[in-house]
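Whiteboard transcription, Tuesday session. T.W. wrote the structure tokens on the left side:
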């Protein structure tokens, strides 16, 4: 119970910071690109039911609404959902804990967790719950921080020492292999995974942390350039392993609801 209360308190402090994070033109451009990258894992089937699990203030929901008709956004903190309500059109919003999902088994064709599972004290339990509420043959796509790269771990250590914020830096404790292992232990099959997030992620995605782009002239052309640089890095063997995040596409075995 204390971990849930701690997370609620953390999310309360992040509301104002998320308004900064998603408020700039260049950061909106980045997060729209981020959302497209995640959703490219799924075949767009408008009739499918989709859960945005740990939706926060709803950064993914508008992108989902362009592709699907039946969408549920779930988050533990009601203030996040109230913020999301201001700009969504038809998504249903639900207060709930990812570790104990308040929905019936086999409710969703697709589930997406965008940077939400690493905040949980026990992601393995969450994977089991996600497996239960996903339909047979359904898809789970997650995007999470990873600790594979020594270089990135060093940079994160520097950030941890210099920041005055009280974030939970244990979010970096899992490697890509460990994320895959946890999903497979719950019964999922791995479809694919790829490293994600290089230069553009800290500069464009988190202007509440990195202020460089906020005061840079011609920032939109620069933002487009940085995304192209990320695309190039992603194609270079060995270099592309030095990523901040990874995207994982898992599938629940079965025939119905497949993409």
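and on the right, the sequence the group agreed on:
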């Amino acid at each position: 119970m204390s971990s849930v209360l701690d997370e609620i308190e953390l999310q309360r402090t992040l509301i104002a910071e998320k308004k900064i994070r998603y408020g700039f033109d260049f950061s909106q451009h980045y997060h729209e690109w981020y959302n497209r990258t995640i959703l490219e894992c799924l075949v767009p089937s408008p009739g499918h039911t989709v859960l945005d699990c740990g939706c926060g203030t709803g950064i993914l929901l508008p992108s989902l609404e362009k592709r699907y008709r039946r969408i549920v956004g779930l988050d533990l903190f009601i203030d996040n959902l109230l913020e999301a309500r201001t700009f969504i059109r038809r998504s249903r919003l639900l207060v709930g804990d990812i570790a104990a999902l308040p929905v019936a088994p086999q409710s969703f064709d697709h589930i997406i967790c965008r940077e939400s599972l690493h905040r949980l004290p026990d992601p393995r339990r969450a994977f089991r719950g996600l497996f239960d509420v996903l339909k047979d043959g359904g898809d789970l796509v997650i995007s999470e921080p990873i600790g594979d790269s020594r270089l990135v771990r060093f940079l994160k250590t520097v950030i941890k020492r210099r920041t005055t914020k009280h974030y939970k830096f244990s979010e970096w404790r899992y490697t890509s292999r460990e994320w895959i292992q946890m999903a497979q232990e719950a019964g999922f099959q791995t479809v694919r995974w790829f490293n994600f997030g290089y230069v553009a992620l800290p500069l464009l995605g988190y202007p509440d942390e990195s202020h460089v782009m906020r005061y840079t002239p011609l920032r939109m052309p620069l933002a487009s350039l940085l995304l192209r640089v990320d695309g190039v890095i992603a194609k270079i063997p060995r270099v592309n392993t030095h990523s901040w995040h990874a995207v994982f596409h898992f599938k629940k075995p079965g025939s119905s609801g497949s993409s």
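Someone added at the bottom: The two ends are 37 Å apart (CA to CA).
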